[in-house]
Write a structure and sequence with these properties.
five-stranded parallel β-sheet, Amino acid/polyamine transporter I, Rossmann fold, 2 domains, 23 helices, 62% helix
Length: 613
């Protein structure tokens, strides 16, 4: 450790003090705050999704809210155990992508990756629009500006994440703790009541119950189960972002995963119990969570605090995507399925290009949807269910190959999980197909085709570069440096001096045009060149058209054909102004020449900067 640094305090989990790079990573607590917002916020719409579907069977159907929720909680437990195993088996992150890549083949891993990318992007858009919708419900005058409010919220979350994932996690600990705390207060107080404290929130609003109630059958319960599984989105985020945790990364990530499952499961079950206890029914314009807060705590300050906390957490739950997607993009880039720029990190352990790409695509979705949550929600859960199913199937194969102690029980556990999430994916896609799910059906293969196109391109590049093979030993060749000039100055002298230092032979070239003014300037340059006599040949390149870069590129090609044993370098001298604004005063001749030479020849290009001081 450098003597100029001070030793940091020990981490909250009691391990050795982290180094400077580790300081910008997540602990179990900050990881839970940064990567669980999506899952925590889902309690605002998960139970409501169940109730709305069961309302098709009238009040009798609403009686099945708790059994359906218990089934979802059981699936949650399976997923938590499974992703805890994924974290241990794949500590480099990637979740279902990493599992599928190892056990199910490259094509299946691309399906998982594409589904996760779509889920992360849609999570940002849905979270931001849902949060802004809560705000505009409280302040209707802001409704007309909801798109701008969405973009402002997205910009805020993006800026926080560009400062580093640890910094963003600390910023989100307080709102997450407030939301979870109030949820448990709401549940605890509600369980002590025998009747609702208030029904003012739902007063005057029309019921959503069906006029002609249908029978409670397996199909209705299955649809309610699939819709309620929207509350499970975000469970995979911790497994995808294991590298973002401090060492020991896997152990910290596993703790955060278990804590997430316990808190989310208790909230879902508790809210469902209260729905049955208070006999709540879905109404237009008021969420089920708002009705529960009203019934448990009364229509007072606590009611508004919960609504405000829900709004904040929904808006900030987009942070889950900003923590998980850049890591997934890094893995795809490392495997040559995306441009390698996505694997680069900034000084705060931030995959900046992944963060910015997510922000730009999400902003486009927000503008496209007009800031309307209902336009985006049907697309939301499909991607994550596909990822869940692939991860579960991959872990089944993992245990079948490992065959360690207790492997049969794990196979059964993951197999049941794969069956349940697969059925949920099919049901949600079928039921929401005409409402926008068709877009996901199209987007998945498009993303896969993009991954494969990039992979093939990198394969061709690697073949041309001979990657993985020992190249021929380097050898010296004759070096020729070509220097474009237009007049005599200190810049010309510096350029020729640098060229003489670089090559065995130097040639200066100037482009002449047939205009009388240009001919006069050429004659003046040639006369002064002869007087100066720098020992460098001045070559005149005639061009009938007023072009600068193409004649020089053509000359380079001629020299290369005539002297195949020479290495040609084009040295372009340019002035570097003292102030940034002074760049507007200079022409772009150097850029024009460099563009033509790079596009039309194989010559090396050297840009010489002459500072004006």
């Amino acid at each position: 450790m450098s003597l100029l640094t001070t030793e940091p305090d020990a981490g909250p989990d009691g391990e050795e003090p982290p180094d400077n790079g580790e300081r910008h990573r997540l602990t179990a607590v900050t990881g839970l705050a940064a990567l669980s917002l999506d899952a925590m916020a889902s309690v605002a719409y998960g139970p409501e999704a169940i109730v709305v579907v069961l309302a098709a069977a009238g009040t009798h159907g609403l009686g099945f809210t708790l059994p359906v929720t218990l089934a979802i909680a059981a699936l949650l437990a399976v997923l938590v155990v499974s992703y805890r195993q994924v974290i241990a088996a794949f500590p480099d992150g990637g979740g279902s992508y990493a599992v599928a890549k190892k056990h199910l083949g490259a094509r299946t891993s691309l399906v998982a990756a594409a589904s996760l990318v779509l889920d992360y992007v849609l999570n940002v858009a849905v979270a931001v629009t849902a949060g802004v919708a809560a705000l505009t419900s409280a302040f209707p005058s802001l409704y007309g500006d909801r798109v701008w409010l969405c973009l402002a919220a997205l910009a805020l979350v993006t800026c926080v994440n560009l400062r580093g994932i640890a910094e963003s996690a600390r910023a989100f600990i307080v709102p997450t703790a407030i939301f979870v705390g109030f949820m448990f207060v709401l549940i605890g107080v509600g369980l002590l009541r025998t009747h609702p404290a208030s029904t003012q929130a739902a007063a005057g609003h029309a019921l959503v119950l069906a006029d002609n109630a249908s029978q409670v059958g397996a199909l209705l319960l299955l649809k309610a189960f699939a819709s309620g599984c929207a509350a499970l989105t975000g469970v995979e985020a911790i497994a995808n972002a294991v590298p973002s945790f401090r060492a020991p990364r896997a152990r910290r990530a596993q703790r955060a995963e278990v804590a997430l499952g316990a808190v989310l499961g208790l909230m879902l079950i508790g809210l469902s119990v209260l729905i049955g206890r208070f006999h709540l029914q879905p109404v237009e314009g008021v969420t089920v969570l708002a009705q529960l807060a009203d019934a448990s705590l009364g229509h007072n300050a606590a009611f508004y605090v919960i609504q405000f906390a829900t709004m904040i957490l929904l808006a900030l739950s987009a942070n889950t995507s900003f923590g998980g997607l850049p890591v997934l993009l890094k893995l795809l880039a490392r495997d040559n399925y995306l441009p390698h720029v996505f694997a680069l990190k900034a000084d705060r352990q931030v995959h900046r290009h992944g963060v910015l790409t997510l922000a730009v695509v999400s902003a486009a979705l927000l503008v496209f949807s007009g800031g309307d949550t209902n336009t985006l929600v049907p697309l939301f859960a499909i991607g994550v269910f596909v990822g869940f199913t692939i991860a579960q199937v991959g872990m089944v194969r993992h245990w079948c190959l490992a065959k360690d102690a207790g492997w049969r029980g794990r196979v059964l556990l993951n197999g049941c999980g794969a069956l349940l999430t697969g059925v949920a994916a099919v049901v949600v896609t079928a039921s929401k197909f005409t409402e926008g799910a068709w877009l996901i059906v199209i987007a998945l293969p498009v993303l896969m085709a993009t991954f494969e196109t990039v992979h093939r391109a990198y394969g061709r590049i690697g073949e041309c570069l001979g990657l993985g093979r020992i190249p021929a030993p380097p050898h010296r060749e004759r070096s020729l440096v070509i220097v474009p000039v237009s007049s005599l100055s200190r810049l010309t002298s510096e350029a020729l001096t640098a060229a003489a230092s670089l090559g065995d032979e130097v040639r200066a070239v100037t482009v002449s045009h047939p205009d009388p003014e240009d001919r006069a300037a050429l004659h003046t340059l040639e006369r002064r060149w002869a007087q100066w006599d720098p020992g460098v040949e001045l070559v005149r390149l005639s061009c009938a058209r007023r072009s600068l870069g193409r004649p020089i590129a053509a000359y380079v090609r001629e020299v290369a054909a005539a002297e195949p044993g020479s290495r040609i370098t084009v040295l372009i001298a340019e002035t570097e102004p003292e102030h940034l604004w002074q760049r507007l005063l200079h022409n772009q001749r150097g850029a024009v020449v460099a563009h033509s030479v790079r596009r039309e020849t194989d010559a090396a290009i050297c840009r010489l900067r002459f500072r004006l001081v």
